[in-house]
């Protein structure tokens, strides 16, 4: 007697077994097709959204989207953090970030509450953020200003300058440093919109954002250039090396048009230098000199970069000695 019969379970007929097997195989086939389609289309999807984070969080970037129940959402995040930091298995290096982790969540939901003119809730959350991380209000620009700047351009179809001013107008005197840096934040937000459009979207839109940035008194500094080079690196991963250098040249050209008096380094050259440093860090010494020499040809001013000169000499010597 079969095992199925001995426990009172009826045996499946040949037809029933066939139906089950076909169903399982169909599910596996559909899963494989789904993976194939998504994998093939992902570069295009990312290009349209301007970054994988935006692709996966499309609802957050939906035009004019309002996120309700900010307190409830924050409480959910805080419960997760409480469990994480109460767990003895949490590594010390993560425990060291406890204050920042809590502060970041309070800031995000505090700004969202202020965006919806829920002033009391927004100020409560920001006060908790500063309690966890007092240095949020230190420096120029301070971290709270930088947070606010990025938050107001999540929805790129909105008037970020108006949103920024509406939020800052709700802040009391203890946030005077954030109020004082408001125009800087608005101008920098235009610059960020500009590089997003020039890399991932429309050159016309990017040029318009640059002109708005200039009108707002925005200036390009080293931190901004590092951010742009980082974005170009992400673009290269999705679209290829040639496309990334084309984007860098677009940025160089538009920056010169919008800011003719500014002596800005070539972004294409900066990309070459960044790659040279990556090669050097990875021990690929033989690839370093060619990248640095290309950077020098693109922008002779990079010859004044002592770090680049240092790894050029070191990589040449180490290659000669066979050292990695």
What is the average per-residue confidence, as pLDDT, rounded to a whole number? Answer: 83
**Count of all domains:** 4
Number of strands: 0
**SSE string:** HHHHHHHHHHHHHHHHHH
Gross morphology is globular
Q: Report helical residue fraction.
A: over 70%
Oligomer: single chain
Q: What characterizes the major β-sheet?
A: none
Low-confidence regions: 1-7, 52-61
Radius of gyration: 26 Å
The percent range for strand residues is under 5%
* Cα end-to-end separation: 69 Å
Structural class: mainly alpha
In DSSP terms (H or I, runs of 4 or more residues), the helix count works out at 18
Could you please describe the fold and organization of this structure?
The chain is an all-alpha fold and 324 residues long. It folds into four domains: 3-41; 54-180, no CATH class; 186-264, no CATH class; 265-324, no CATH class. The protein is 73% helix and 0% strand. The protein contains 18 helices and no strands. Helix 14 runs antiparallel to helix 15. The longest helix has 36 residues, at 14-49.
Record keyword descriptors for this entry.
324 residues, 4 domains, 18 helices
Condensed summary:
The chain has 18 helices and no strands.
């Amino acid at each position: 007697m079969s095992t199925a019969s001995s426990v009172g379970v009826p045996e499946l007929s040949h037809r029933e077994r066939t139906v089950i097997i076909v169903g399982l195989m169909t599910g596996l086939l559909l899963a494989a097709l789904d993976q194939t389609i998504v994998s093939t289309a992902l570069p295009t999807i990312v290009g349209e959204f301007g970054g994988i984070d935006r692709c996966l969080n499309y609802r957050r970037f939906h035009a004019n989207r309002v996120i309700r129940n900010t307190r409830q959402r924050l409480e959910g995040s805080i419960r997760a953090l409480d469990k994480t930091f109460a767990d003895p298995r949490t590594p010390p290096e993560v425990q060291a970030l406890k204050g920042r982790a809590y502060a970041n969540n309070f800031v995000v939901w505090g700004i969202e509450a202020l965006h919806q003119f829920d002033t009391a809730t927004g100020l409560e959350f920001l006060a908790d953020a500063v309690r966890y991380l007092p240095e949020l209000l230190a420096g120029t620009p301070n971290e709270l200003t930088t947070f606010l700047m990025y938050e107001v351009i999540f929805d790129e179809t909105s008037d970020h300058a108006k949103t920024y001013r509406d939020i800052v107008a709700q802040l009391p005197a203890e946030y005077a440093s954030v109020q004082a840096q408001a125009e800087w934040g608005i101008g920098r937000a235009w610059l960020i919109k500009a590089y997003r459009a020039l890399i991932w979207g429309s050159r016309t839109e990017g040029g318009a954002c640059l002109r708005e940035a200039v009108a707002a008194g925005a200036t390009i500094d080293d931190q901004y250039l590092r951010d742009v080079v980082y974005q170009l690196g992400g673009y290269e991963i999705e679209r290829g090396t040639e496309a990334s250098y084309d984007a860098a040249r677009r940025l160089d050209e538009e920056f010169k048009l919008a800011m003719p008096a500014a002596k800005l380094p070539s972004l294409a050259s900066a990309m070459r230098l960044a790659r040279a440093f990556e090669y050097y860090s990875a021990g690929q010494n033989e690839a370093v000199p060619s990248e640095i020499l290309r950077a020098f040809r693109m922008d002779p001013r990079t010859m004044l970069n002592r770090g680049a000169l240092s790894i050029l000499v070191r990589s040449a010597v180490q290659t000669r000695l066979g050292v990695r």
